[in-house]
Structures are given as C-alpha cells and as structure tokens.
Design goal:
binds zinc ion; globular; about 25% helix; two-stranded antiparallel ribbon; Rossmann fold; alpha/beta
Length: about 210
C-alpha cells in the first residue's frame, strides 16, 4: 500500500562510512539498506540525510591533540563524543550506499557542515538552536507523521526522532531498519528517552502493512 501524503519516511545517514568497513562502522549497518528500500516503496514522500563534515570538523578526534576516538570533550554546547574522521564532504565515505534504491526521494538534508558544531539530528544541530531547515520543509509540505530509521539508532536516528517529535510531528522509529553503535549504554538510554518523548517504536513489517 502507498501511504498518505502526510507520511514522510526519513532515511538517516545510509553512507559508506557507517557501513561495515567504513571509518565509523556500525555493526551490520548494511543490513538496513534492503529494509529501507522496501519501506521506501510504500512512501510517496521520502527524505534522505547525509552526515557531511568539513575536514576540520570539531567532532573528529584527529582535530584534538592527544585525544582518541570515542573519548568525550567539553565544547561550548556541551559534551561531545570524539569520532574517527568520517563523512568528509565529497569523499566516497560520505556517499550514499550504492544499493540504496530510492529514486523518488525528494530532498537530501546534509548536516554537520558547520566546523564548530556537530549535528546528529536531521532537524537541529548539536547546539540545539541552529535549525537544518527540515522542520520548516516538512511543515510546508503538510507532513504530519515522520517515520525515522537508518544509522545509527542511538545517535542520529534517535536525535532526529526526538526532534521530529519536539517539532510537533507524530514520530515512529523503525527498529529493524536501524542499527546502533551502543557506546556506554547509549542504546538503552536512547530508547528510554524516545519512549518518554512519545516516539512510537515499530518494526518494518508493521509499517509496511499499514498497522502503524
Ligand atoms: Zn558525523
């Protein structure tokens, strides 16, 4: 079935650097690509995101002398996890997976392009004030419900889902179309936050048959 025009599928960061073998690989991240393709067949309105950093990005451990990936640093906007260098603008690692088959996707939101601020969320940068423009776009398109999935569940997908909800959209996170990094309990913490915010936890089969 094709869903209502009010429903938007948001596919988060299905890029090579988050796939097995990539610079910031999410375990079994490639398994979500065929699920995302199946889901996309049921949505007239699909939006993609790409993590899209300048080489000097503040989230890269390599840009902090003496620091290693997965340590944290205090930045003006709060605690920041330091990541391996990933999704540098224009590189192959930042490209969308070749098997992603969503030719009807309408928009691609590129996030994390400001060198001094990270952006896990597709809606708001990590300073929690700078918008990406996605909420305004979705409102203007008449979207009511946002279905989020992709990589990684506990970072970019969760933050995007929380911000979608905060922006007033009914929000669903499709668990089996996402994979997690799970750093220091981050996955359980994310699910607790999502539940508290009223984000619906779903499986792709339920979304595909229109139950959610
Ligand atoms: Zn990033």
């Amino acid at each position: 079935m094709m869903r209502s025009a009010d429903d938007v599928l948001l596919l988060i960061d299905l890029q090579y650097d988050f796939m097995p073998g990539g610079a910031l690989a999410v375990a079994r991240g490639d398994e979500v690509v065929p699920v995302a393709n199946r889901l996309a067949q049921g949505f007239a309105h699909v939006v993609l995101t790409q993590d899209w950093h300048p080489a000097a990005h503040v989230s890269f451990a390599a840009n902090h002398a003496g620091r290693k990936p997965f340590e944290t640093v205090a930045l003006p906007y709060g605690e920041q996890v330091l990541w391996p260098t990933h999704c540098v603008q224009g590189t192959q690692g930042a490209a969308l997976h070749r098997d992603l088959d969503v030719p009807h996707a309408r928009a691609v939101i590129r996030k994390g392009h400001h060198a001094e601020v990270d952006s896990y969320s597709a809606f708001l940068e990590a300073d929690r004030t700078t918008p990406t423009g996605l909420a305004g776009y979705l409102r203007e398109m008449g979207a009511k419900r946002v279905y989020c999935c992709g990589l990684a569940t506990d970072y970019c997908v969760a933050w995007s889902a929380l911000d979608a909800r905060a922006a007033g959209f009914e929000t669903v996170l499709i668990e089996d179309a996402s994979r997690a990094i799970d750093l220091n309990g981050s996955l359980a913490a994310a699910w607790a936050q999502l539940q508290a915010a009223g984000v619906t936890r779903a499986q792709s089969t339920d979304v595909l048959r229109g139950a959610l």
